[in-house]
Amino acid sequence: MKKLERTLTLPGAIAVSIGGMLSGIFVLPGLAVGITGSSVWLAFLVAALCILPAVLSKSELGTAMPKSGGTYVYIERAFGPLFGTIAGIGLWLSLLLKSAFSLVGLSFYLYVVVNIDESYTRAIALLALLLIVLLNIFGLKKVEKTQLFIVSISIISLIVIVALGFSSFDTKLTEPVFIDGGDGFIAGVAFLYISYAGVTKIAAIAGEIKNPAKNLPLTMTISLFLITTIYCLVALVLVGNVEASILATDIKPIHTLFQTIGGDTFGLIAGVVGVLTLLSMVNSGVLASSRFPFAMSKDGLLPGYLAKVNSKFMTPVSAILTTSTLIALAIIFLDVVKIAKLASAFKVLMFIFNELTVIVLRETNAQWYKPTFKSPLYPWVQIFGIGSGIVLLAYLGIMPVVSVLGVVVLGFLIFLAYGRKSDRSGIASSYGIFSSFFKGASKIREYSDESEDAEGVIATEAEVVVPLLGEETSPEMLVEMAAAIKSTNMVQAFDVTEVPNQTDASVFMQDSPESTSLKRRIKRLSESKKLSVGFDAVVTYELSQTINRLSSQESCKWLVMGWAARPNSGIFISNPIGWLLANINSNLALYKDNGVRYIGKVVLALRPGRKDKNFIGIANNVCKHFGATLTLLHVVPEQNKTASTIKTRSEKKLKEAKVKANISVVKSDSPVETIADISASYDLLILGTPEKNNWIKVLFGGGKDKFTERAACSVLRLTLKD
Q1: Of 15, 175, 313, 705, which is least packed with CB atoms within 10 Å of its CB?
Q2: What are the pLDDT digits (tens) for 182-213?
């Protein structure tokens, strides 16, 4: 089975978590003022306290089940496919509705930037949605990488405006503190609840977090503390600088605050930051929400077409299109207040389920349930979370409550249509008179963590590592060349598959026919050549970092990769050669396979001034492995008068060679053409790294290795670590 590499560090996980919440402050606080008054900052604080039980519960569940999937997985393991279906639909709707109100907010901020008529807000929101859908379908990972930068700019902007806002704070503007007493305040808390939805989103990608037992609880608690602080301070500054009557209907409150404090220039800055932030949030929301129907379809709880992955883009196109269609319908038929209330209602329901799940798994003493982090004050924290959730649901109004009940009914009907065929059962299936509701069609399936090791890090003791990216002319030849370079029989090959963030990596966790075939061929090579070659398959969201980590292991002396003669494939191409050249932590060998299968003659082209001895030693290993002869080639300028000296020096270095070797010194002012002509007489050309490779070429692929490109034989290009 393929392995999913854990790549997400604690700072990265915190950034993802905070990034999933920022949209709330850009859209909701003004509308919340119309519900509760200037106490909106306190409403944010109380909402955070109501969220805390869910954070502690999901932290516990995430450390017991550090798999991608989050709440859907936890609830299904505890209660079975029926409640898993209800949870999946509720989560799906909550996330897509949050994306919907973010899109509406985006259109209002865009109006500030380009002065578009406000009557076109829905049309603008739909156009933005179309753009994001296309980005997700095409699986453009590099767009996703900009989110951290945008989140950083947003937070810095909010910190600056808070600092400026307190200097102009007017206490007279904070009246009334409570518009409708306690009822209005609780309604405001319920309305703002969705602002914190992203704090637990990180659990959905727990399978990608390094050391989840430690980092998952830390991520959620730190993120909750930081975002609560930002929310409360911004809300307090907002009500102290802008009249409540203006805020009550304002969907772009951050722009209003910036403009009030700093004039039109600040207002324009807020508009740009708002557009970028909300666009990034919607992209993340579509990415996350589309995973739920995809995962449920894989589990047989929704129609099978939703689990299909496009063969070209490797993204769940049907799931993305279905999700985006529902977002579009919400934008067309619902106003932003209704959208926010519905999103909050569904999120409250899911968090209640989370807290119930912890109670069920604790009380039933499931054998496999061994969380490394346990929620403090159990079960009182969970009881508080359930109770506060029920109260908040009641204060959201009739429509959200009816919608929640509708989701329960819809989930039940979908379960009857699809889920009853499932062979999974929740742990609760063995308890109580309602046990039949928790059962699937047949046997109970216990949960097990199938991670490759405790940290989820790909590890090997081999000195030579060969990442196979699926574009090699002959993987077997590449692996054999790797064994020859180090003159060792300890080689580890990794079949590395990079998948877009839009796709749940679990769909690729089972070995494909191609991977199975590759494993068989590598095994045959190992047996026939008497080599010890390990083979493993890896799924990753970040190819360059995964390969770099392989090279960083203490045992790894060589990283050997197939190559198409581009010294710098760049950040926009999946083959990460350029990035590796700048970041490599081991010796790097790039092998351009020109179809030569029998290595009988090897030529080593040496450049004056290079540490020849190291290259000669490697070339000697290669020749010894293949039983080949070795030629040392020096190409010097026509006017060079040291040819004889160079030849004499090389003869001394060849004395330790254990293969048949000779020296060739050629005078030429056109070394590329000369080496190309000479390579026709050989099976393998060995070269060093080009003398110059500026950062522009390394990052963006501005040049090619002309020696390698023009060679008539296969080429091995070596980069030796200092």
Answers
A1: 175
A2: 999 999 999 999 888 777 766 666 556 677 77
